[in-house]
Amino acid sequence: MIRFAGLAAIPVAFLLATTSFAQQSDQPLLKGEAAFGDWHADRPGVRRLIRPEDLHAPFVTESASNGPGLAERPEDAKLQLPPGFSAEMIASGIGNPRVVRVAPNGDLFVANSQADQIRLYRLAEGSAQPARKAIFARNLNRPYGITFYPPGDNPEWVYVANSDGVVRFPYRNGDLKASGNPETIVSNIPSNGHWTRDIAFSPDGKTLYMSVGSLSNVAESMEKEPDGGLDAWVKSKPLGATWGYEDGRANVLAFDPDGKNGHIVATGLRNCSGMTVQPATGALWCVVNERDQLGDNLPFEYATTVKQGAFYGWPWYYIGNNEDPRHEGERPDLAGKATIPDVLMQAHSAPLNIAFYDGRNFTAESSFPAEYQGDAFVALHGSWNRGIRTGYKVVRLRFRDGKPTGEYEDFITGFVVSNAAVWGRPVGVAVANDGALIVTEDGSGSIWRVTYGQGRS
Questions:
Q1: Is 35 in contact with 346 (CB distance < 8 Å)?
Q2: What does the alpha-carbon distance between residue 252 and residue 352 come to, in Å, rounded to a whole number?
Q3: How many domains does the chain have?
Q4: pLDDT tops 60 at residue 98
Q5: For the whole model, what pTM was predicted?
Q6: Domain at 445, CATH number
Q7: Which of 131, 133, 186, 342 could form a disulfide with 124 if both were Cys (CB 3.0 to 4.6 A apart)?
């Protein structure tokens, strides 16, 4: 990891002041080429609308290799937030904080993937100060997704997605440490390549969803046809299913709560790194890291509802009926059959997690403004495959009457230091029981609590 000299860290408890950037209500909506900016143009309130017709042709630009150098957080660094919002650090110096999920009693469960642990933080009321900290579970295998079962106020289990399957621990509200050994629920999931496995339960608790990313960028070395021939494969497998070393990958799977009756829900999702259920509709949503090495602005990343039986294109097509030139002519039978995602985001932003803001049960004092109700937050981790970096921020997806408008808006920026370095890489987003937004980032290894209201913390 590259470190840049001369940049000192800030104390953990330092409260970042609300940014002086004004969110301009009359700011124009950026469309088409105007939406293809980079970190220099990012700031809270910047809105983008990207549509399928805005796609570039492949290889308009060369494929960049521009991994972020990780810098210490500058002393004068501020999270840039919309007016009225402020951010306070919960913890720092964590090796690899990834997904964060909120237990029914308000405890924060954080997947520390690199350390093979699940951390727990219990915050003091109305504060980012942890009243209790604990290691809930150890000796896992690159844990990532976390969910509670049954859904509701009194779960009996905590489910954890390892890179190779799903385990669960007995749980009662308030437990600081797992009271029993992990029980394997799902096994034999391929663990290499894109290893982040997220999980979520359907609102009725009858279905456990699991995302499994691809092994490769775009199945470059996969055999042209599966054993037994393509015709036989197509007749026996879901639409768009891959084979060989990609067999069972780039999918969203579904299981009974005990791990039985596993099946494929949707295919062609290169790397669905984050899943959640939309409270207003019960729909399963997924944020996807699309493929690399087609150019700076190709193809778009996306957030989408996951439809039963749908094929989202990978590896043969992208964003609808756009054939990947590296697989030209291989699957004419799939032409026109790829589902177009709901919300498109800039290429190489690397969305990793999504959380809906469902503030109906929050007190007025702790809630975000009413206009945020029903919208979603997405953490953009940033990617190596763009000449001038984008991502490295948290954005807000706009919804109206439960349906996405297609627009997304910068909500938290300020993680990028220069063209050469960043100090933070957002990963996890979750909405706390008091209405605060919880954000993890694995650049400096910190967790943040974002609140609304001047003077509140």
A1: yes
A2: 15
A3: 1
A4: yes
A5: 0.94
A6: 2.120.10.30
A7: 131
